[in-house]
Fold:
Amino acid sequence: MASLKSIKKRIVSVKNTRQITKAMKMVSAAKLRRAQENVVAARPYAGKLAEVLQSLAGSVEGDLHPLLEKREAKKLLLVVVTSDRGLCGGFNGNLCKAAERYIKEKKGEFEQISLMTVGRKGYEALKNRHTIAKSFPNVLAKPSYQTAAMLAHEVIDGYLSEEYDQVILLFNAFRTVMSQDITFQQLLPVEPEEKTLADETPVEYIYEPSVGELLAEILPKNIEVQIFKAMLESVAAEHGARMTAMDSASKNANEMIGKLTLQYNRARQAAITTELMEIISGAESIKG
Structure:
């Protein structure tokens, strides 16, 4: 049986760990509220912009803008958005596993598959197994639209120079504090919306300025907005996952403290009993 001193030392250590996990949960809870507000505000704009572009892509010719150009997809870029920090359960691990499964499934369709990682954890998990075209660590502590615009320009430049023929965005979408959805979203080329029977009658649009100028302005903006939304979704999902993980860790610490305390009391009782037996034995030997 472990000594009283070692058990007491473990109890103190677990209590210190519990303090840390409780503090991390509180910090993530405070940050989650703001992150969730940002996601809720960004979703309608990003959704409507994507809807407008899908409608335009189905009603205009692809040669009006190179980002609408349909070409044989031989080179794929997968943009993986993870976190910069750990201690958030399976948040990063599940996403990286999904990326690896996707790459394995698409190997037969594409001649080349490259990765762009946003967040340090994704780069660390995937760098030894796959080709990382570009990496952007430590950009999610304070997600900004300027960062999203920079990432969008990297993607657009690669697509226009035909380094990639298709660009897929992979990220954790925020649903609730306890659940995140692994989401694949095609950024390029822009896919036209699917027509239903109710949409068979074409709608005549009047464009001002010209369609080409309108697309030249909106298409890059859409890539920026979609990446920015994915960053906000990922940050909110990360805080939710960390809250859940730290709450679970705190509960486990409580259980461990209870077990160690019981073990400590039993060891202490055994030590006292042994001392009493020694005293009684010594007294008996003196009498004899």
Remarks:
- The mean pLDDT is 87.
- Strands lie at 75-81, 112-118, 132-136, 166-176, 179-188.
- Residues 46 and 226 are 6 Å apart (CA to CA).
